[in-house]
Amino acid sequence: MNNWANEGRLDISKLSFPAFFNNAEQYACLSAGSALGKGVGPLLIAKTMVSVPDVAHCKIAIPGENTTANFLLNFAFPTAQNRIPMLFSSIEDAVLKGEVDLGVIIHENRFTYHQKGLVKVLDLGEYWETKTEKAIPLGCIAIKRSLSQDVIQKVDALIKASLQYSYTHYPTLSPYITEHAQEMDEAVMRQHIELYVNEFSLELGETGKEAIEQFYQLYQQQKGTKSIDLFA
């Protein structure tokens, strides 16, 4: 999906914030549909506990280069450069099999890693929150700037209405969720929803935008990119 956005083939796409920043000249961030929050960040895990100074020397599985998870890993451990991108749902097994020393896990795996005997080395989101006192920006709905304002506003309103409908009918899970979730235990699905879907999903507001702007400033410092207005 991120590659398609890079090629300009999608009018609307869900993107991690680093991927969105990389495409911000073409795309703007909608107010509805984003994933931000506190206590929602990626976790750095291992088969046995690793001391913080040793992390820099470890082989680390990451769920993609242009992900918030990789950005936060770099924020906490800038000298840890031996990173192996892989599908996020494969990272736990890669750690268990010894293919990598550490793994950065996201999504449903936050709730399942300990059941497999894995241990948390660091909560990368908690580290971000401690250092910045801001919510963690995970991903957003990005829309092409070339579309009309009328279309952009309608899409934003439809996403917000869809979320409000889901809130009204929760804890019922739609067939779409149950058919496509990586973790098929409904209790885990609900944990996932309750952690990642919140007031920022309905509307970013000033607090959400401030968190994204702080994230963007750090991204610019790393990448040396020029500043651009991010929001639709």
Walkthrough of the structure:
With 232 residues, the chain is of the alpha+beta class. It folds into two domains: 2-36 and 138-220, Periplasmic binding protein-like II (D-Maltodextrin-Binding Protein, domain 2), CATH 3.40.190.10; 43-132, Periplasmic binding protein-like II (D-Maltodextrin-Binding Protein, domain 2, 3-Layer(aba) Sandwich), CATH 3.40.190. The protein contains ten helices and nine strands. Strand 5 (60-62), helix 3 and strand 6 (83-85) form a beta-alpha-beta unit. Helix 3 packs across helix 5 (124-132). The two termini are 20 Å apart.
Instruction: Sketch the topology as an H/E string, one letter per element.
Output: HEHEEEEHEHEEHEHHHHH
CATH architecture of the largest domain: 3-Layer(aba) Sandwich
Please count the beta strands (DSSP E, at least 2 residues each): 9
Helix residue percentage: 40-55%
Number of helices: 10
Radius of gyration, in Å, reads 18 Å
Q: What topology, given as strand order, has the largest sheet?
A: 6-5-7-4-8
Low-confidence stretches: none
